[in-house]
Design goal:
Largest sheet: 6 strands, mixed
Family: Belongs to the ABC transporter superfamily.
Pfam families: ABC_tran (PF00005), oligo_HPY (PF08352)
Structural class: alpha/beta
Number of strands: 10
GO biological process, one term: peptide transport
CATH superfamily: P-loop containing nucleotide triphosphate hydrolases
Order of helices and strands: EEEHEEHEHHHEHEHEEHHH
Number of domains: 1
Mean pLDDT: 94
Keywords: ATP-binding, Nucleotide-binding, Transport
Low-confidence stretches: none
CATH topology: Rossmann fold
Bound molecules: adenosine-5'-diphosphate, magnesium ion
Helix content: 25-40%
Distance between the termini: 38 Å
CATH architecture: 3-Layer(aba) Sandwich
Organism: Tichowtungia aerotolerans
Length: 257
């Protein structure tokens, strides 16, 4: 078994609503699986179930062979480092009264990474450089950054704990198109450097295609089609995928940005 992540017949329920229905997927180390589908189809619910932030009503999620919903204690703590979330709006998860440097140092402290304050400060500076931000800006507060810069901070904070998997939940959906391309480029660079695996969630098929090795198309809680990015985009089998593709005005223009 060399899959990093295996999702087997997972369902997520909120009371009577079955938001995710019997979903199965797999992701190898260093690979990107795009998850695409319109708003409300269950992408975030599935992403949260993968990270054991949401219980699975049925089925199981295996990370390196262990069922994530059964992890407790030290093994759960380790999983919280190995699998991280990048949000659409990192601002919502940043404390407005804490400098961004202090926020990253806090993550390092909480996870026992970096023995002294000086080491943590140094590590935060390295992380900032890794994501293309000036380490001098670590003293600044979240409101002093643009949307794209905040997304870089969110990525730096996720990387602080040295994850193997990032669930990126619409990480570029709130950004201007040119900034989207910068963040996509950054995520690809980081994947190349670190061998990260991504579950890359989006509703814009052009962006998801640009990022992904394989794509899973989600509709109404279910995966209706999975294949290589080219297969899914050039020869869509399911009517819903065909509809999604026809909503992409000009894929070549979008990719050239
Ligand atoms: N915490 C929650 N409680 C109740 N319903 C929820 C919750 N989160 C999501 N939902 C519902 O589940 C469905 C799927 O939502 P979501 O997973 O956020 O989809 P997506 O990320 O694709 O937009 C929607 O109908 C949404 O209203
Ligand atoms: Mg969502």
């Amino acid at each position: 078994m060399n899959e990093l992540l295996e999702v087997e017949n997972v369902s997520v329920r909120y009371g009577a609503l079955e938001a995710v229905r019997n979903v199965s997927l797999s992701l190898a180390a260093g690979e990107t699986l795009g998850l695409v589908g319109e708003s409300g189809c269950g992408k975030s619910s599935l992403g949260r179930a993968v990270l054991a932030l949401e219980p699975a009503a049925s089925g199981r999620v295996l990370f390196e062979g262990s069922c994530v919903h059964e992890l407790r204690g030290a093994s759960l703590k380790q999983f919280r480092c190995e699998a991280q979330m990048v949000f659409q709006d990192p601002f919502g998860s940043l404390n407005p009264r804490m400098s961004v440097g202090a926020a990253i140092e806090e993550v390092l402290y909480v996870h026992g990474l970096g023995k002294t304050k000086a080491v943590r400060r140094e590590r935060a500076a390295e992380l900032f450089e890794n994501v293309g931000l000036n380490p001098d800006w670590l003293r600044r507060y979240p409101h002093e950054f643009s949307g794209g810069q905040r997304q870089r901070i969110g990525i730096a904070r996720a990387l602080a704990v040295e994850p193997k998997l990032l669930v990126a939940d619409e990480p570029v959906s709130a950004l201007d198109v040119s900034v989207q391309a910068d963040i996509v480029r950054l995520l690809k660079k980081l994947q190349h450097e670190r061998g990260l695996a991504y579950l890359f969630v989006g509703h814009d098929l052009a962006v998801v295609r640009d990022m992904s090795d394989r794509i899973a198309v989600m509709f109404n809680g279910e995966i209706v089609e999975t294949g290589s990015a080219d297969q899914v985009c050039d020869g869509p089998q399911h009517p819903y995928t065909q509809k999604l593709l026809s909503a992409v005005p000009d894929i070549d223009t979008a990719l050239a940005l």
